[in-house]
Structures are given as structure tokens and as C-alpha cells.
Write a structure and sequence with these properties.
Length: 383
């Protein structure tokens, strides 16, 4: 018998910051400059950054007093000038399949969603880059929520840290080292378009990839874009992570409806940019995400067109059975139609895995994320 869905409402109070800088989310260079500005001698700054960095990102410490290899006077200096904050978890839902969805609150009272997906060989954390979204993709529930603002680097890194908190993944001093990571992969596929918040996403991923902290390799991180062409090459040169493209159609007519950014940068323009993607190879392929919509983009003709469009691009195609949401204008393609589509792609020489929907019972599946703030608040009032 499947375990029941659970939902926890957490009421952890946020520490008042009084405008203090938050060290979480700063790059090493930014942290060094901040520590010097607070009174750290320049000759000590590199060492101090290394010490603080390890406490925050290796051990997961949020209390300056716990940084026991720092002199008490220096800990007091840090506490008097900085804070260590991550977003506040408002609710946590656990699906029958083990998927966890967090509704988290950030500065200004805004909320975003974060999803953790456990699998046999990996644990993937899906994080958000914006509050809401500006792209209005017609099949995506997130796209029905208007863009409010970009997340800061601290709020992006903080999503990883709060998930590690909940999963108990920070190492324990003196305990045997655990090699298996619960969060082994990160995907920027949550709320928002990452390439419309490039600098904050870049800085956050540099923090996450740093070998002396969270230490996730660049090939463990995938950034998904709907096709912001001017920023695509920067993903390779300034971040170095893997790239996924939210594609979903084989003609401009259909993609204009599904992914309206196509009206600005059409399929030909997007694919030309991807063919020139720095470092593109068979070992570092571009992933094309393709949601399967009944009667819209799921014919054999679509599959053959997709094969032709991808000629010359080292790629794989992730086929995503449409995850329905209240009021959605589409339906999921049949299993037979999805498998027939996948076979055509595979027989043309491209990997074409069919994504197994996860967390549908808690609206945590791909395309279902939306910060249902009012629903949570109304439920709390009723109860």
C-alpha cells in the first residue's frame, strides 16, 4: 500500500537582518571584498574566506558562534556585520512516490517552489530562478503566474541549502564520510526563465560548484531555457553546466502558441545558435525537452520533422508526458503515441527517454509548479 501524501506547515521564524549583508550566495571574490570592508585585514582575507566558506557550504553552519576555528573576536565581527540566511520553508509536501515539494518564502513575502526527486541512481533538485514567469508558455502552469521579480544569488543557493537541511545531508563532524549524495543533480527547471536572470544564476552556480563546499560538478547541473538566444552561449562560457532547451514543437506556427518566445527567436534562429554552442560534443549533448500534447505536437510527422531539425546537433530528446493541471487547455498524449514518437527519434540515432511523471499527486511534476500562496493562507484560516 502506498504511503499517504503528507504536508507539514513549518513556522520557523526568520532572523531580522536590519539590512546586514547576507554571506550566503556571495562568490569568493564578493565575500572577500565584504570581509575586508567589515574590517578584515587584506592579508588575512583569503584565509578568512576559506574558513567561512567551509563552515557555510561544507558543514551547513548558520551560526557564527559555531565556527570554532575562528577567534571569538572575529566571530563577533562577523555577527555584527553579516547574516547567514536561506529562504524559509512554509510547507513541505511528500508524494506517494517520495518526491518532496517545498513552498519557500523569500524577502518581500514572495514565494517559490522547489522540488526534490529521489531515484535509484540519483537525487535531483529542481530549483527556481524567478518569482513567477514572463514567458506564458500555454502548457505550463507556472506560466499562468505573472513575473514578480528575479531571485538573488542567495535565494537560489538557499534553495539547495534548505533542501540539504530537510534531507539531513550536511556532514557531521567526526562521523564516517558518506559517499552517496542525496542531492546529486540540480536542474534549473523550476519557476522562471534562468537566462532572464543570468548573473544571479551564474553566481549561484559558481557557489554550488565550488569544490570546498557543496561541490556539485558542472555536469551535474542542467540549465533549462525556452530559447533566450542572446544569452545561450554565455551558459557555456560563464557557467559551464549542461544545457536543456524547452522545445516542444516542430513548426513555428505551433511553437508560437506553445512557447511564445518563439515569436522573438524562431526555431531556425534558435537552432543556428545551438549549432554554434561552445563545447558541444557527443559527451556534452544538448537536451531537447518535448512535452507530449494530444493532437497538438505528437504525430509521426512531428517526430520525423524533429529528427531533421536536429541534424548536426549532438542531442538527446526528453519526451515529457503532459502533466495536467486545473484548467489546462491540453491533454496528455496516449502511451502508444508517445512510444511511437520515441521509437522514431531513437531509430534516427538520438536517445529519446520518456520521463516518468513524478509528484503529480502534489502538483510537483514538470510544468505544474506555481506558488499557490493564497490557497495555503485560505487553508490555514479555515483550519
Amino acid at each position: 500500500m502506498s504511503a499517504p501524501i503528507t504536508q507539514d506547515v513549518l513556522t520557523i521564524a526568520r532572523k531580522a537582518t536590519d539590512g546586514w549583508p547576507n554571506l550566503v550566495g556571495m562568490t569568493r571574490d564578493q565575500m572577500r571584498a565584504a570581509l575586508i570592508a567589515a574590517g578584515t585585514p587584506e592579508k588575512q582575507a583569503k584565509m578568512r574566506v576559506g574558513q567561512v566558506w567551509q563552515w557555510v557550504y561544507h558543514w551547513g553552519v548558520r551560526d557564527f558562534d559555531a565556527m570554532t576555528n575562528l577567534a571569538k573576536d572575529y566571530r563577533n565581527l562577523l555577527a555584527a556585520n553579516f547574516t547567514l540566511e536561506v529562504p524559509q520553508v512554509v510547507t513541505r509536501q511528500i508524494s506517494t512516490d517520495g518526491t518532496r515539494k517545498y513552498l519557500v518564502r523569500i524577502d518581500g513575502g514572495h514565494e517559490v517552489e522547489v522540488v526534490y526527486i529521489p531515484e535509484e541512481d540519483r537525487g535531483t533538485l529542481c530549483i527556481s530562478s524567478q518569482v513567477g514567469c514572463t514567458l506564458t508558455c500555454s502548457f505550463c502552469h507556472t506560466g499562468t503566474q505573472k513575473l514578480v521579480r528575479n531571485l538573488t544569488a542567495a535565494e537560489i543557493v538557499g534553495q539547495v541549502m534548505l533542501a540539504r537541511d530537510d534531507l539531513g545531508e550536511w556532514p557531521i563532524p567526526g562521523a564516517p564520510r558518506v559517499e552517496t549524495r542525496l542531492i546529486s543533480n540540480i536542474v534549473l527547471m523550476g519557476m522562471g526563465e534562468p537566462l532572464y536572470n543570468f548573473e544571479n544564476v551564474r553566481d549561484a552556480m559558481h557557489v554550488v560548484m565550488d569544490n570546498e563546499g557543496i561541490a556539485l560538478g558542472r555536469r551535474r547541473i542542467t540549465l533549462s531555457t525556452s530559447g533566450v538566444v542572446p544569452e545561450i552561449a554565455r551558459t557555456a562560457t560563464e557557467i559551464g553546466c549542461l544545457l536543456a532547451v524547452s522545445f516542444h514543437a516542430t513548426t513555428d506556427e505551433v511553437r508560437d502558441q506553445l512557447v511564445p518566445i518563439n515569436k522573438k527567436w524562431n526555431i531556425e534562429t534558435l537552432l543556428n545558435e545551438l549549432r554554434a554552442y561552445p563545447g558541444l560534443s557527443n559527451s556534452e549533448r544538448i537536451t531537447f525537452e518535448y512535452v507530449m500534447l494530444q493532437g497538438v505536437n505528437d504525430t509521426k510527422e512531428d517526430a520525423y520533422r524533429l529528427v531533421e531539425l536536429l541534424r548536426g546537433i549532438p542531442a538527446k530528446v526528453n519526451l515529457i508526458p503532459f502533466n495536467e493541471w486545473p484548467g489546462a487547455p491540453y491533454r496528455r498524449s496516449s502511451g502508444n503515441r508517445i512510444h511511437a514518437f520515441a521509437d522514431i527519434i531513437y531509430n534516427a540515432g538520438y536517445a529519446s527517454p520518456i520521463r516518468t511523471p513524478r509528484g503529480e499527486d502534489i502538483m510537483a511534476a514538470c510544468g505544474q509548479l506555481k506558488s499557490a500562496t493564497e490557497k495555503v493562507r485560505k487553508s490555514a484560516r479555515v483550519n
